[in-house]
Structures are given as C-alpha cells and as structure tokens.
Amino acid sequence: MLRYILARIAMMVPTLFVISVLVFTIIQLPPGDYFESYVQELQMLGEPADLQEIALLKEHYHFDDPMPLQYLHWVTGMLHGDFGYSFEYRMPVREVVGDRLWLTIMVSTVTIVFTWLLAFPIGVYSATHQYSWGDYGLTLLGLIGLAIPNFMLAIILMYFANVWFGLSIGHLMDVKYLNQPMSWDKLHSILAHLWIPVVIIGTAGTAGMARRLRANLLDELGKQYVTTARAKGLSPGRVVAKYPLRLALNFFVADIGSVLPQIISGAEITAIILSLETTGPMLIRALQCQDMYLAGSFLMFLAFLTVIGVLVSDIALSLLDPRVRLQGRRG
Amino acid sequence: MPPSTRPLPDTARDLLRIDGLRVSFPLLQGEVEAVRGASLRVRPGKITALVGESGSGKSVTGQAILGLQPANARVSGKVWLDTGAPVDLLTLPHDGRAIRAIRGAQIGMIFQEPMTSFSPVHTIGNQISEALRLHQPMPPRALRARCEEMLGRVGLPDPRRIYDMYPFELSGGMRQRAMIAMAVICGPALLIADEPTTALDVTIQAQILGLIRDLQREFDLAVLLITHDLGVVANLADEVVVMHHGQVLESGPTEAIFADPRHEYLRGLMNAVPVFGARARDRLKPLREVPAEGIRALAAMSVPAAPAAPASATQARPLITVSGLSKSFLPRNRSWGLFARSEPPLRAVDDVSFEIRRGECLGLVGESGSGKTTVGKMLVRAFAPDAGQILLHDSAGGVLDVPGAAGDELTALRQRVQMIFQDPMSSLSPRMTVGQILSEPLDIHARGTRAERDRMVAALLRAIGLGPAVAARYPHSFSGGQRQRIGIARALALGPEFIVCDEAVSALDMSVQAQILNLLKDLQKELQLTYLFISHNLAVVNYLADRIAVMWRGRLVELAPREALMSAPAHPYTRALLAAVPHPDPHHPLDIAAACMPATQAESAWPAAFRESAEAPGELVDLGDGHLVRMQPMADRRDLDGTGGAR
Questions:
Q1: How many of the other CB atoms lie within 10 Å of CB of B248?
Q2: Chain A, 298-327: which have a CB under 8 Å from a chain B CB?
Q3: Which domains does chain B have, with CATH numbers?
Q4: Model ipTM?
Q5: Domains of chain A
C-alpha cells in the first residue's frame, strides 16, 4: 500500500510537468501580451503610458527572453510559492486571490455537503421504492433540476426575490461589508447570504448525484449477496444499509477527484450573475485581459487540485474496497 | 399424464410440506405462472432433491419457502414448517419479524454462485458472525470462537486466518464451504441448497456433496437440494421430486424413481445424460432433436465434393502438432510493503506436447486452473506461447506456424481454425442480429457476393435447426441452447477444418446439452471437422472424444484413446477425476472419501512413480497403443499394476 502511494505520488511529477507546459503554451497562445493590450488601451483613452515602468516590469518578468526561459522562470517561481504578479490588479497574485479563495472554498464545501445530504436519501428512497409514485415524482424533480442551467435558475431567483420580497440577493454578503476586514457581523452577513448560491449551484449536482446513486444501488440490489443477507434473517433496512449501499459508496469516493477542482473554480457563470466574491469571475476576467500570471497560476492550481483529488479518491477507494487494495493489478 | 406419486414410507411428521404452491409474475400483458400448484415434502433429517431444468420453477419454489422471491411475484398456497408447532410460512407478514426469525435460524440457504453470494467488501468472519449474532446474541469473543469452530468443521484449513479474509481471496470451493458454514451456524432444521455444486469442478463437487451429507448426518439436518444434475441426485437424495413447467411430475423415494421412471419427461431426461459404461457411446436422445438434413445441405455447400485423399492416409497425418508449449502468467502483487517480494511467475501451461489427428475429436480434461483453456486459446492464437511450437498441417503437406503466422498466413489461419465459447450469453453481441453475427466473418474475409453470403447464412441456420427466418432477430430472444447453436453456426461460417470447443456445453441444461452434443457430432461427421473439446465433465468428453488428454497444473499427465483411459486409467489424478463423477444411478455411489482429499495432499499420496520434483521431473511414457502417462521414466512399470491399475 505504501509502495502504491509512493508510486502514485511519483507519477504526479511528470503529470504536473506536462500540464504546466500545456498551461503555459495556452496562456501564451493569443497574440501579444498584457503590456501591449494595456498600452493600447491607454492610448485609446488618450492617456500617456509610462513606458519606462512597463519596460522595467517587462524586464523583471523576463518578457523578452525566449519562451523556454520564460517558462522556467514561471515554474521555478511557483515552486517557491511566488505565483507571479497580477498586472491587472497590480499586486502579487497571492494577495489578489487571498480572500476570494476562502470564500470560494466555503461556498463550494457547503454546496457539496448540501448536495450529499439531499442526494443520499433521495437516491436510496428511489432505488428501494423503484417505480413507485415517490420514485416517479423524485425522478421528475431531478430531471427538472438537471435540465435548468444554473445561471438561469440564478436569474429567475433574483427576479422573483426582487419582485416579491424586494430583496437583492446578489453578492455573498451585505454590500457594506465588501472590502471590509473579517468581523462577526460580516461572517453573519455571509452566512445569511450563503444559502441562495448554495441552492442554485447545488440543484443540478443533487439531481445528478441522486440519479447516479439510484442507478448504482439498483445494480447492487439485484445481486446475489443481497438475497444471501436476507436469507440470514436481516431486516430489510439493515440489509440495504450494510451491503448494497456500502458498495454503491464506491462511486461517491471516485467522485472526489472531480469535486476538488470544482471547489475552487466554483460555478463561474452563476458567480458572475450573482456577483459572488468568489474566484470564478476572477479567472474569467484574467483570461480575457491576458493577465498571464494570474490566469496561469490559477489554471495550474486547478490542475494540481485535480491530480491531488484523483490521488485522494484512489487511496480512499483502496481503503474502502478490499478488492482494489488486495488484488492490485495484474503484473 | 397426471403426476405419479409413489407410496412414501410413513413418518410421524414432515418437516416441510408444500401444498399447492403457485408463484406468478406479472408481465406487461397478463402474467406468467412460474410454479403451478406444486406440492412436496421434506422429512426431518432427510435429503429431498428437487430436480428440473432451468425455467422449471424449482429455484423460485426454494425462494418462496423463505419469502425471498422477487418483489413483484405473487405467491399462494401453503408452506407448512413443523419444528414443534406447525406454521404456514406464507401467512407470515412479508419481511416481517416472524419470518426473519425463521430465516437463518431454522432454515438456512446456500446458492449456486459462491463467487457472488458473499459481499465482496466484508470479511468472511463479519458475514458469518452476523448470522449468528442475529439469532443467538453472545459476546464477541464467543461469537468468533463459534464461527471459527464452524469454519473448521466445514473443512476449511486455518479458520483463524480465513475468518479475517475476504471472499475473493478464497477459491470457489472454499467459498462454497464458507457459505455452508454460514447457512448452518445457527443449527437450522432445514437447509435449502440451490444448485450448490453446479459452478464447481467435479472433484470439488464431490467434496461439497460429501460435506453436505456429513453435516446432514451429524446435525440431523434436513436438506432440500435443488439441482438439475441427476448424478448428484442419485448420490445424495433420499427422495426425489421432479418438476417441469412449474408442476410436479413425479415424486418418490430415489431408488424407485431411478429404477422405474414413469413419466415420459423423466425418462427422456435420463436418456439425455451422457454416462460411462456400456451405453456410453449410444447416441443421446435429447427431448428435442435437431434434424440433420440441414447439415448435409451445408456440407454440400462448403466441403469440396471429392474427398482429398483416402481416409486412412489423412487419418494418419496429424492436423495439429504441439510441442513444448509453455505459457506463464505473472502473479498478482499482494504485498503491502514498500518492497514487493517478487514471486515466480505462475506456469499455466508447462511443456505440453500432443498432436491432433485429422478428423478426430481430442478431449482435453482438467480442473479449473489446470491450463486447459490456455492451451485452447493458444491454438486459436488468442494468446502467444512463451515457448514451444504449434504447427497446422494441410492435406497437401504444407505447414503453418500458428504463433508466428502473419499477413496472408494469419488470414488463412483465421479461416481454418475457429472457437466455440462456454457462455452463450456473452459470446454473442446483443446489438447485432443473428444474420449480422453470422455474415460478419464472411464479410471480413470477403467471401462471395452479398446474395451468396445471405444464402450461406440461411444454410448455416438450417444446419443448426433454427431456420433462415430467425436471421432478423437479436440474440436476447433465444434460449441458452439456441444461442449456443448460433455460436456454433458462427464458428462454421468460414468452413474451418479445426474447432476448439471450450466448455461448449457446460452452461446448458441436460436435455439441451444432449442436443448440442449430437449437433457437434453430426457436424463433425458431415463436415469432416476436427475438434479439440475442452471440458471438466468427463462424461461429456467420453461421449464425444476419440482420444482424451488430461491436464493437471499446467502439465499433460495422461493421453490415451478413449476406451483405454476410461477402462484403465494409469495416472492417479485421472483416477481421482473419474472417481469424482457422480453417476445417475443410486447403485453406483460416489467414492466421496477418495474425492475429499485436498489437492495439495493428494500428490504426496500418489505412488512414487508419479511424484515429481525439480530434480526428478516426470516424462510422458508410452504404455503401448498410444497410451501416454506422465511418470518417472526409470520407475518400474509393474508399480502401475500395484496401484490397482492398468496394463
């Protein structure tokens, strides 16, 4: 097992290397760089550009070096925890992301917990009461939830909240706390606002997960070992909880790999519509205006989380399922 | 014909009495009746066998006793369980407390598939102790002790270790033992065994049957044995109940039933089973025979009109020569540590040499894991051998190197050599019509025009007795036997000379099995085919094969003409294999004690002449008349006679 984990971690290095090359290539693909578009913008506005400062920055960030060298500087910087400089915000990337990262993690974590808490009982009920009215009703609800795009739900909720209650449900906190240091009042305000994005972002996820759990559980419920367990004299509830549900859990765990990056990128479009103070809108903005270090570091971070997520889910799976743990792979 | 019931010996009471049981399943239109008014009884401490083919309703009868039938089934009738005060089990609330107190505690149940009957993610101990804890709560320490004791009682070595193992770490036979331990741990009065040995090898089957009989005697356990195997019934049962289409046709004491089967169906069933002895090569009489005209028509289409050479000349020349064939598989890495011990590779096939003569059927017999399927797969070039030679000769004297064939040679090989698989379910694509399945090989090898291919498909379908009308249907609409016939037709499409039949009838019912065996026999005769017939069932091989090869742990231990191997087996493993086959004859009981020897100990009990070691490997020694046996080359031949054996 230890050997397996070490091998898996060793495998991460080349994976991340390839990803970093790809990311770097992609953010360099559009013609020009940030400073060119910046100077252009200033000229269009008729303002004088401080060409000297730009030249300094360009030199500091090795913009005139050949590509491979630029790549090397970027990567070695990241290894030291220096994610570069956001030209758009004119501060280091770390500080730009700062607060937003924590807010994003909070929104996403709450969303995931919400999704699981809701999807689990729905999935189990649907599977154990297959083709009942309850199953049909939940299936209908689930399909509606899957079919409506998140941002549409966000717009609809915003509209009705405004028309019926005269509420503005945008932002993650009351407007007066924006850019304020963290305080109890601010936290309170955040928590009060949290449920709306959680419901909006979580709806489709809940519906999808309930459907998958139902399908997985139905597969397991038909298996021979379920009959064996019933033949022992176990009560129906205990049978489901101990055997098929335990096996259907595997896919929850396998899901962690894709969940981790979602936590950070977190429903960009919904976040833009609701003006949430999360990282999603920032990533899109950074990509739009060629803020290469901000965008690049961000993409790298997402890739890193994906790789970690897959590793964590593989290890968890092998802990959960003895077949994965003990059978290993064929030589 | 009304059900014929023999007078049964009077007993004070029956442990289980089923009266007029009906089970039906609702369909989109109407409903289908799986069990139609079946009645039977199980006496305390006795074994009642419930016999029938798949679809006869025998399994659902077993499930209905405990209320384990599928949720949409409708059940009526009476199921009296009498362990003091009689209860009608069907009146108890579904999955309620009362029936749950009976499940596991008074009636235990074991199933056909030891692979899937245990949850794969819980340990054996966890699952067995659960049954005990449920009905007889006791402290964890005592619980574990009782479970280990029972695991030891069912013949598992090292129960302490097995308690903490997962089901997939055990072999099929060991899993079935653990399953039995779980079913009897609460000391039930009745054990329902649903095809308990069908998925097992003959030797393991004999061991499990022996175990069931021992437990029955030791714990005064009554057993309802659900099976399709008349050999198992004859060896184990006190009373027999024959079911067909949901009805009981015949019931009575085993002796009487076997001596004088009154019902036409049971007589048919008995004629459909391949047996040893004098009647061994008589043509089997399946309940429904496939007519042979179609085969002759197909032969006229595909075989060149004039035989290439006089029969005797071609007979002498081998079609396939195999020499020094070896194949290893790397074992799985089970180590948890940082540095895995590197285990030696597993030798699945170890220096195997034999030849297959043109027009013969060579039977290849062995337990699972003996390497017989690996040999078959190498012959059709599904695996590449690690070492050794496989040569395919043609009648003109040309030679084709099977592992080394490439380009045109490989194309030719694919047309000359075909395979028939065990599982008729998974070997046909569910997304293709039968017509597409059969014409695909013709398309790939660009045989003829569209119209000619269609004619060929029609001829193939006629040959297997299905008729060209079924070409537009999909495989799911056929029964297992029909699907296997389609698989045979596919193998025949290109007009091959040589067909590897890998357990081709193992998954089929008895009467269907007879039908397929006869079909294979007719095809061989009319189309001048050569077969390698791989099977673990010696009776089946005996029916079809001209010569029989026996494999044990990757080695060929004996190769002989059929009569010689059956009448005078020389190798102790062959003898054990023959002894483990249950005969459908109550006067010919199984020697269970001989079969119960674990394989690891068996080798050390062999006469010295057959024991092998790294320093003194055995060799194939010719006993005369092409009877080869693997033994110590220097050993005295007279030793063989000393072991009650051959010539």
A1: 26
A2: 320-323, 326-327
A3: 11-106+188-276 (3.40.50.300), 118-186 (no CATH)
A4: 0.77
A5: 2-92 (no CATH), 98-320 (1.10.3720.10)
